[in-house]
Amino acid sequence: GHWSLIVIFHNPKNHNYYGKIIDSRKKGKTSKSYCPQQKGFWECGYYVMKVMHDIVISCREKIILHCENPLTSHQIDQFVEDTLKDFMVTL
C-alpha cells in the first residue's frame, strides 16, 4: 500500500473549504503537484506523519507544498527523534 493524506482547510472569512492532497509518490507529478516527493517506496508514512505533525502539533501556517525535493534520511530520522521526544514529554 501507499499512504497519502487529504487536508481540508476552512476559511472563516468566506466560509469556504479548501483541500490539499499530500501524496509523496513521485509517479508523474511535478513540483507544482502536491508535496516533497519521496525517493523510494517505503517513506510515504513518514511524509504523512510529518505533515500531520506540522499541522496539528506545530500549528504551522506555512507548510512547504510545491516542492519536488525528497526528504533526506537525516530529516526523516530527525523527525522521528523529535516526535518521540515530544511524545515522551507528553506522557
From TrEMBL:
The UniProt entry, under SUPFAM superfamilies, shows: Cysteine proteinases (SSF54001)
Keywords, sorted A to Z:
Hydrolase, Protease
**What are the recorded GO MF terms, alphabetically?**
cysteine-type peptidase activity
Residue ranges annotated for the Ubiquitin-like protease family profile domain, each copy included: 1-55
Q: Which InterPro entries match?
A: Papain-like_cys_pep_sf (IPR038765), Peptidase_C48_C (IPR003653)
Q: Which PROSITE patterns match?
A: ULP_PROTEASE
Q: Which GO terms describe its biological process?
A: proteolysis
Question: What's the family?
Answer: Belongs to the peptidase C48 family.
Name of the protein described by the UniProt record = Ubiquitin-like protease family profile domain-containing protein
